[in-house]
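Why run this: before we spend reagent on co-expression, it is cheaper to look at a predicted model of the complex and decide which construct boundaries make sense. The entries below are exactly what would go into the expression plan.
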Amino acid sequence: MLTPIRSLFAAAAVGALALLPSLAATAPAGVQPGDQPEYSWRSPLVNSMGKSSLADLQGSMVLVEFWGTR
Amino acid sequence: MAIKMQAEYGDALQVIFVESQGAKPEAAERFALERKWFGTQAMWTTERPFDSGGRGLPAATLLDANGAVLLSGSSSMLGGKIEDHIEDFMKSRKKFPKAMNKDLKKAWTFAQKGKVADALEELAELEAEGGETGADASELRASIEAKVESRLKAITWMLDNGYPIDASEELEALTDDVDEHEAFSARCSELVAKLEAEEMADELKAAAALAKLQEKLFADGPDEKLAKKLTKLAGDYPGSKVAARATHLASLAK
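The model came back. Tokens follow.
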């Protein structure tokens, strides 16, 4: 049988687990269609020719490709 | 695929590759160089501008010409949707936008043809009329001026960072576009003077020599002999901006 304190922790844990699906549903993971992200790079991009922010690229479509070296 | 699209669509599409596994910038550059991925206008960085929301790599985000997200997520999930959006943009970019005030069509058409002075003169007249059209004209004027400012900023950067040949080509195009616009023409003249200054002569010679070596490096990948030639080039033009670029490329080519 659980002690009162353990029961309290167990109830809190169950409550937190119950909340997780709703949190996952409401917290957007990354940018969403319609968002207008803003960013200025701290270090120059290779081949950027002086462009240093997303705002500098407006007028063209921009494809950002996330890749890895491993 | 993105590299091919960059080569195909040119200025209409800007491609940014973001190494997202924590590689150091030089390691990421060398990795791309070994795979012969350089040689287009695509940009490269190890700094993530935002979270794509995609699970795993590769992932991608497509922004429209105003910087708004159209698509984002795992590349495998996006499939041909990216190309569909780009094709739509390519078709629509030369057509007068349906949502735009029709009174602006003349000015918009001037701007599309690169006649910046004519476009701004037309917009100034519409602005003077006031009202809704005046406000819309003001917004379009600001957008055209911002694009010119952005091009001036890019040319200045190229001149200051060892890309005088690229600067010269872009400056020639911009000078033509802003012809008869007093203020912008004066700004272009200042940059022409900078480009034609005595101290820029060596930078231009060095840049021409570097362009040949860089083309070979991007086509063939890292090569010890090429690294030596790049190091020699840097030594031939000590203290120049182009020498700094050559030294960096030599370090990647070894």
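The longest strand of chain A covers residues 61-67. The interface with chain B takes residues 28-39, 41-43, 45-51, 54-70 of chain A (CB under 8 Å). Bring this page to Monday's planning discussion.
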